[in-house]
Structures are given as structure tokens and as C-alpha cells.
Amino acid sequence: MANFLGRANLVSGLAEGGAAQTVLGRIPLTRAAVGSAVLCLRPEQLRLVAGPADPASAGAEVIQREFGGATVTYTVRLKEGQPKELLVREPASGTLWAEGSQVQVQVQGAGHPLP
């Protein structure tokens, strides 16, 4: 996680033009890149879902949740790959995941490759 960017997730991947292959699946990019890349993903861009493993998501366990009014911020630990932990911010009106829940992490929108 990167604090100098606000609360953000930094995810490594291999960029191929307009998308990058990462532990979270293939993610579209905000600008073209080629080769090794570090993507910035805001916690709001990640979603937790139940269900079996899917190539477009990554398996994880909820290890912490923090209520913040209209939102809930989860810390999840990936079952494999790097980074090991991600922040996910979801509306409090949605599914409330308990600590220990087994989930899939999906990305919504594009990742921003850092220079």
C-alpha cells in the first residue's frame, strides 16, 4: 500500500500496450505501457465477491474491516502473488464481509501505471 498517494494499492504486472497482466487478472491501463509495471489502484476500484476462483479475480481472505460511515474498508490477504495485502473500500449498504471470509477480488476500471 502507498500512503504518499493517499490510500492506494500498488500492484506489479507485465504491461502489453493498453493492459497489464497481474495477480488480479488482466487490468486495462490509463495509458499505454510495455514491460514490467507497477499499477496504482484505488481501494474504491476493488470489489469483493463470493464464488469460485476466476481468471478475472484473485482469491483472498478478509483480515480486517473498518466501518467509515457510508463505506467499509477491508484489508484482504491474497492467497498468492504480490502484494500480499490490499485495501478494498465498498459501500456499507452492500454485502458486509466478516473477518475470515474467503472472497474473490475483482478490479473495476483502469490501473494507472507509475513512472
UniProtKB/TrEMBL annotation:
It holds the Pfam family TOBE_2. Residues 39-108 form the Transport-associated OB type domain. It comes from the Bacteria. This is TOBE domain-containing protein. It comes from Deinococcus lacus.
